[in-house]
Amino acid sequence: MSDQSQRTRAEIDPEYDHRREDGVDESELESLLAGYTVGRDDHENAPAFVIRPDDVQAVLTLLRDEAGFDHLSCITGQEYEDRYESLLHVTKYDRRTHEVTLVVQLPTDAPVSQTAEPVFRTADWHEREIFDLVGIEYEGHPDPRRILLPDSWQGHPLSREYDQTKPQVVKYAEHANPLQPDRRTETDTMVLNIGPHHPATHGVLHLKATLDGETVVDVDPDVGYLHRCEEQMCEQGTYRYQIIPYSNRWDYTANLPNEWAVARVIEDVADIEVPTYAQLLRTMATEFGRMLGHFLALGTFALDVYGEFTAIFQYAFRDREVVQDILEDLTGQRMMFYFFRLGGVAWDLPEPRDEFIDKCRAFLDELPAKMDEYHALISGNEIFQIRTVNTGVLEPDVAKSYGCTGPVARASGIDYDLRRDDPYGYYERLDWDVVTADGCDNHARVLVRMREVEESAKIIEQCLDLIEDWPEDERTVQSNVPRTLKPDPDIETYRAVESAKGELGIYLRTDGSNKPARFKIRSPCFHNLSALPEMSEGEYVPDLIASLGSLDIVLGSVDR
């Protein structure tokens, strides 16, 4: 191993800005929020301030405008024996390690909090989900409907007194024009139901599109058809073995980052160290997994936009299959890999090592020519340009308000990537770049993903170089983790990783047992999809389909 492999990226390159030199200044936050704080809470990842339910908007506005906290990354709802809590996890797009948690405590007889939606649009869907599943109401919310369950559902499945044996009757709703009178035009509107079906919606999704002639004037994404209770299953599984396998089912197109999200948050609360060699294997495997997601996104988007199946779609799946074969050799599984273990990975490279490394290098050697093919077929295609350039425009401020992350945010010029901004694994020791673009449209989102494939290849190649030279007696793939893991009670933390779709975060609360008391999944697809109405209003139906495809959502991740 070279000396460079043992040093961080900042030590190697003084110009490198990884945005994590210092944490948030708690004294400044205390001073800023002095008039609103009624108590403090203890969270592992960030200072936590207890605020009054009717001060939510004032505090968020203060944090955003005075301290630069412009990213409401997640809202978590939960119920204790004596209270409800609404937790707002807030950070910055330009300095991810500056985090703060706002704790809103609510009485059990009237769990009502002020909505955060006027300050951050992403709160719209978050608060609807919390009301739907936990039962907390948000005063002033513009659209206080259920989001995952039918409107006629009785009770809240995550509340302590919910009767799971109670039968449910789903009623038919009377059709009504979804446009309010002040938004109607002289032309009669028409409601077009797109879905729920699978082939053109990247999962079971229903879009209620309201048209004025051929123009889209309103879109209401109707999700929840694939809700599989992943959070609840994780709360019923043991830390040691039973949670990581579930994560492969969230975003099943690029699922290794899901495993890392679970491993990172549990290792954080249980104070588990991961050997350096295992971090290297994790990094390499996850970048192959990122390629899986981006190849699929590229092929299906071409199919969405102009029905291209014979060339682009099959080219993308040709290359995806090669990566799938590599990961099958590494993990032993075709799709649901379960390669991560707490404290490391399942095993080292398959034997013979040289054969596996040569197979990886052969793929990387051929990749530049294949990427040239994609650019010739896609980015240089006139039809593709007409369909994607200046359609589905998502301005940076709007993307931030909706909590967009990943390629969707970076294609709007937002320089935000957790691999660099909140480093984990081996990323900080490697030479690679965060890909951004300023187009803000469907075309830019495709180009960002294509360039990210090239950056993933750079990361993998460096990992292979290090793995090849790593001393045999130092190839430790797992640390010593107790068979039964019981972290101390009342530990709370929020940890996230950079998946192929964006920020995949998990809020975890312990109770002293071998299972989580609360396990909340922050899905990047959920946030990105919520911005679709902003991208589609005023455009045509084909543009709506292109915009949806450009988001690269997976409903297993949206609905969880």
TrEMBL record:
Main subcellular location of this protein, as a coarse class: membrane
Q: What is its subcellular localisation?
A: Cell membrane
InterPro entries reported for this sequence: NADH_Q_OxRdtase_suD, NADH_quin_OxRdtase_su_C/D-like, NADH_UbQ_OxRdtase_30kDa_su, NADH_UbQ_OxRdtase_CS, NDH1_su_D/H, NiFe-Hase_large
Which GO terms of the molecular function aspect are on file?
NAD binding; NADH dehydrogenase (ubiquinone) activity; oxidoreductase activity, acting on NAD(P)H; quinone binding
Annotated region Disordered: where? 1-27
**Reactions this protein catalyses:** a quinone + NADH + 5 H(+)(in) = a quinol + NAD(+) + 4 H(+)(out)
Q: Under the cellular component aspect of Gene Ontology, which terms does the record hold?
A: plasma membrane
Q: Which residues form the NADH:ubiquinone oxidoreductase 30kDa subunit domain?
A: 50-167
* Topological type in the membrane: Peripheral membrane protein
User: Any idea where the NADH-quinone oxidoreductase subunit D domain is?
Assistant: 311-560
Q: Where would one find the signal peptide in this protein? A: none
Task: Output compositional bias ranges, type Basic and acidic residues.
Answer: 1-22
Q: Which UniProt keywords apply?
A: Cell membrane, Membrane, Multifunctional enzyme, NAD, Transport, Ubiquinone
Q: Which NCBIfam families match?
A: PRK06075.1
The entry assigns this protein to a family as follows: In the C-terminal section; belongs to the complex I 49 kDa subunit family.
Please describe the quaternary structure of this protein.
NDH-1 is composed of 13 different subunits. Subunits NuoB, CD, E, F, and G constitute the peripheral sector of the complex.
HAMAP family for this protein: NDH1_NuoD
| The name this protein goes by in its record | NADH-ubiquinone oxidoreductase chain 49kDa
| Organism this protein belongs to | Natrialba aegyptia DSM 13077
